[in-house]
């Protein structure tokens, strides 16, 4: 007999079933014999003596009782008597509901009655019981029907178990060195704060994520014991700073700590907390008889909790902590969405550079190099652009630095070189009588990380472009001090007939004497010199004198000179008078597609 949803019932070999089967085999009464306080006489499996089961019932550590069809106690064991502080003789024939106090709980009482009347097979619950002496205990009660009339009641004290669980959880959720909440507990509280903050208080949340500057050096030189003592001391100061506001302080691992503002009143509160932490670190730490100075970098994030996830908040805090370290350490930095967007864009571009070359997302524009004396087109500089599917057309300053960092500049540079030579050869075939030099920028990493000489030779051979119509531009700082492989590459390219130009000349070493020993054909004056030329009404003699001297020295060394960033006719005229050979800039043309250069040739 069982209720519709009362639980799984009791297994056939449960204690109650065994006891009642044994009783049918032996005696039929549940009354205890004189001297016995277990009113049932347990029996057992076939062949077992009833006394064996009566003994097991009596010595069981779990409180147990058999109940009659009206819920009265037919038998109980000594464990139950000790648990409730009630003598066995007083329990027998008493109402179990009154004994357990379930009558005071309508819900439990109804479920208890459902099992007693057969509408439910099993009841299991945890509740507080009152002992005979008035003390309370937390117990787990189980009432189950057996395959015969008696019901089996078990009562187990779970207070110690719960206390042990709490202790184990505390150990699992706290850092043993600092006694602070650890990463697991911090993220648990952070998730809870993100979930509940929109419904209470200010609806905002703040986070100070800090990392000790120079801790590794202390740990490595003085040992881990001193390092651990320092971490404990740091934890103490953080608690002092965060305590008045009730902010959670946690150690996330290593020398990383976090302070969580669960009901932030605004950015000011979060930054003031960060300031307080930095101020507290101004005093040296007394550790193991030594005075140790340590600073911290702090990333501060404060925002509305609505729509904020723990992962998103920690990512923002981690990024901001990196900014604080990058900005000089020993400071706090507030999360800046615009700066983060730039970082995310940079990261996105960096992660797709190599694939972009393979997908053909790059194109070339060309800017004319014009003879200052005649106005004739002498050459073009190839300038790469990235036609990004998401960010649109990107100028070189958005991705060249990234390409140099991750090494993809080698692959990209090879493509630029090949495409430039292919186009220059096409122009030569269109106008055989108008030699047009194509100038291509080469990064230092291309010289070191690839066989530039072999690449250039193969591309010239493949495209059919004469070597003297190719000019490779390297920055002044890259060429100065060249030795070993770079210098060998420059000489090999020069012997091949390829022109070598120094780009942005005048911003670095400006060592013309050294360059006299390099196979250089041309100088490209940095645009800052030309931009320093004022109008004829407001001349700047110093700028003109410097450029004139550079041009004169370059010519004496057999080098041609190109002025960059020529923006107006006055600048072009003054450069022509000084003796500069060619000019490049918006005065002549912006960088344009290859088809526009073809029209200029015609």
TrEMBL record:
Residues 203-337 form the GGDEF domain. Residues 1-48 are annotated as: Disordered. Residues 346-602 form the EAL domain. Residues 34-48 have a biased composition (Basic and acidic residues). Pfam families: EAL, GGDEF. NCBIfam families: GGDEF, sensory_box. PANTHER family: BIOFILM ARCHITECTURE MAINTENANCE PROTEIN MBAA, DIGUANYLATE CYCLASE DGCP. This is PAS domain S-box-containing protein/diguanylate cyclase (GGDEF) domain-containing protein. It comes from Actinacidiphila yanglinensis.
């Amino acid at each position: 007999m069982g209720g519709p949803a009362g639980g799984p019932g009791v297994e056939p070999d449960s204690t109650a079933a065994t006891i009642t089967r044994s009783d049918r085999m032996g005696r039929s009464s549940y009354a205890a014999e004189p001297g016995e306080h277990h009113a049932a006489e347990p029996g057992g499996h076939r062949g077992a003596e009833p006394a064996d089961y009566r003994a097991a019932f009596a010595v069981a550590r779990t409180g147990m009782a058999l109940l009659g069809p009206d819920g009265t106690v037919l038998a109980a064991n000594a464990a139950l008597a000790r648990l409730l502080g009630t003598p066995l003789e007083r329990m027998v024939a008493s109402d179990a509901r009154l004994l357990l106090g379930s009558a005071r709980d309508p819900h439990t009482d109804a479920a208890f009655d459902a099992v007693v009347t057969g509408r439910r097979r099993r009841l299991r619950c945890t509740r507080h019981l009152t002992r005979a002496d008035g003390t309370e205990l937390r117990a787990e009660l189980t009432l189950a029907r057996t395959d015969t009339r008696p019901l089996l009641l078990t009562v187990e004290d779970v207070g110690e178990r719960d206390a042990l669980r709490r202790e184990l959880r505390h150990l699992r959720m706290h850092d043993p060195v600092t006694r602070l909440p650890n990463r697991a507990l911090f993220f648990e509280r952070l998730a809870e704060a993100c979930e509940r903050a929109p419904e209470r208080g200010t609806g905002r949340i703040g986070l100070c994520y800090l990392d000790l500057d120079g801790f590794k050096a202390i740990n490595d030189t003085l040992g881990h014991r001193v390092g651990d003592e320092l971490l404990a001391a740091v934890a103490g100061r953080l608690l002092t700073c965060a305590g008045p506001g009730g902010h959670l302080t946690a150690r996330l691992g290593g020398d990383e700590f976090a302070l969580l503002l669960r009901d932030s009143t605004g950015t000011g509160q979060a930054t003031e907390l960060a300031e307080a932490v930095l101020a507290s670190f101004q005093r040296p730490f007394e550790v193991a008889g030594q005075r140790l100075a340590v600073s911290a970098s702090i990333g501060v994030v404060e925002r509305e909790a609505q729509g904020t996830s723990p992962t998103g908040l920690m990512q923002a805090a981690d990024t901001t902590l990196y900014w604080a370290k990058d900005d000089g350490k020993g400071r706090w930095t507030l999360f800046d969405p615009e700066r983060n967007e730039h970082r995310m864009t940079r990261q996105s571009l960096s992660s797709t550079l190599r694939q972009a070359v393979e997908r053909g997302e790059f194109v070339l524009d060309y800017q004319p190099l014009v003879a200052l004396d005649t106005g004739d087109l002498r050459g073009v500089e190839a300038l790469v652009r990235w036609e990004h599917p998401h960010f649109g057309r990107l100028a070189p300053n958005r991705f060249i630095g990234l390409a140099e960092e991750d090494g993809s500049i080698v692959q990209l540079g090879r493509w630029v070189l090949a495409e430039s030579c292919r186009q220059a050869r096409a122009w030569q075939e269109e106008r055989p009588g108008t030699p047009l030099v194509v100038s291509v920028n080469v990064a230092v990493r291309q010289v070191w990380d690839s066989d530039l000489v072999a690449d250039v030779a193969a591309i010239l051979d493949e495209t059919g472009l004469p070597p003297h119509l190719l000019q490779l531009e390297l920055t002044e700082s890259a060429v100065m001090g060249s030795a070993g492989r770079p210098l060998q590459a420059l000489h090999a390219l020069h012997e091949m007939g390829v022109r070598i130009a120094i780009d942005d000349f005048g911003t670095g070493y400006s060592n013309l004497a050294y360059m006299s020993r390099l196979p250089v054909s041309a100088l490209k004056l940095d645009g800052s010199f030309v931009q320093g030329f004022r109008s004829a009404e407001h001349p700047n003699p110093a700028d003109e004198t410097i450029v004139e001297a550079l041009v004169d020295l370059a010519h004496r060394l057999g080098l041609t000179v190109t002025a960059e960033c020529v923006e107006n006719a006055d600048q072009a005229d003054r450069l022509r008078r000084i003796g500069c050979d060619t000019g490049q800039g918006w005065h002549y043309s912006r960088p344009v597609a290859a088809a526009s250069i073809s029209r200029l040739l015609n």
